[in-house]
Write a structure and sequence with these properties.
Layout (H helix, E strand, L loop, with lengths): L1 E5 L2 E4 L4 E8 L7 E7 L5 E7 L6 E3 L7 E6 L4 E6 L8 E8 L13 E2 L3 E6 L1
Parallel strand pairs: 2-11
Antiparallel strand pairs: 1-3, 3-8, 4-5, 4-9, 5-6, 7-8, 9-10, 9-11
C-alpha cells in the first residue's frame, strides 16, 4: 500500500489549501481514509475521516466548519479542502487508511500512513 500526499504549502491567515492523497496497492473503495497532523514538538492528532462511500465524515472540533474531507473512488484519491486557515493549523499533514472506519480516528490504530505534506500558515 502506498499513500502519496500532496498540495501542502505556505499561505497567509484566511487562505485556503487543498490536500490530495493518492492511494495505490489497495482496493481503495474498501478503506476508510483520514487526515492527521503533527505540529513541531507535538503528537500526531486526528483531523478528519471519511468512510468507504463518502457518506459519513468526522472532524476534530478545531477544524469543523473550515475543513472538508472528500474522496473520489474512481481516482483512488482522498482530499482535504482547508479554508479560513489559521496559524495554529501549521503542521505536517498525513493521510491514513484503514479498513475499519473507527480506527481512522485513532493514530495508534491506523493500518497505513502516507508521507507528510507541510502546511504553513503565516499571519
Amino acid at each position: 500500500v502506498q499513500l502519496q500526499a500532496s498540495g501542502g504549502g505556505s499561505v497567509q491567515v484566511g487562505g485556503s489549501l487543498r490536500l490530495s492523497c493518492a492511494a495505490s496497492g489497495m482496493t481503495f473503495s474498501r478503506y476508510a481514509m483520514g487526515w492527521f497532523r503533527q505540529a513541531p514538538g507535538k503528537e500526531r492528532t486526528f483531523v478528519a475521516a471519511i468512510n468507504w462511500t463518502g457518506g459519513s465524515t468526522g472532524y476534530t472540533d478545531s477544524v469543523n466548519g473550515r475543513f472538508t474531507i472528500s474522496r473520489d473512488n474512481a481516482k483512488n484519491t482522498v482530499y482535504l479542502q482547508m479554508d479560513s486557515l489559521k496559524p495554529r493549523d501549521t503542521a505536517v499533514y498525513y493521510c491514513a487508511a484503514d479498513d475499519n472506519y473507527w480506527h481512522i480516528y485513532n493514530s495508534e490504530a491506523v493500518d497505513y500512513w502516507g508521507e507528510g505534506t507541510q502546511v504553513t500558515v503565516s499571519s
